[in-house]
Amino acid sequence: MTPSDAEDDPLAIYISGAELALLKKLDFPCSERVLGSAKKTDEGIELKGSKDEFESLVGWAAGEANDADRRRARRRAEMLSHICEELESALTTYR
Length: 95
Fold this sequence. Notes:
Shape: globular
Number of domains: 1
Distance between the termini: 14 Å
C-alpha cells in the first residue's frame, strides 16, 4: 500500500445515536460529509471520513466540549468528549 492509498482509505468511528443527534444539532461547518456517512451497525453508528475531516471535526467538538463544561452542561460535554476520544483514536491509528 502506497502512502496515497492510505490517504484514500476513510477512517471510521462508532458513536451512539444520541451522540449523532448532538453532532447534527451542532452542525459544525466540517461535519456534513462525515454525518452523511452515518450507518447503523452492531457496534453503534458508524461515521466515516478523511483524516482532514476528522481533524477538523475533533477541533470543533473539543472546543464545544470545553464551552459546554464551562456552562455546566455536563452531559453534552461528556458526549462531545467521547466523540473526541473516538476521533483521536482513529487519527492515532492512521498516523
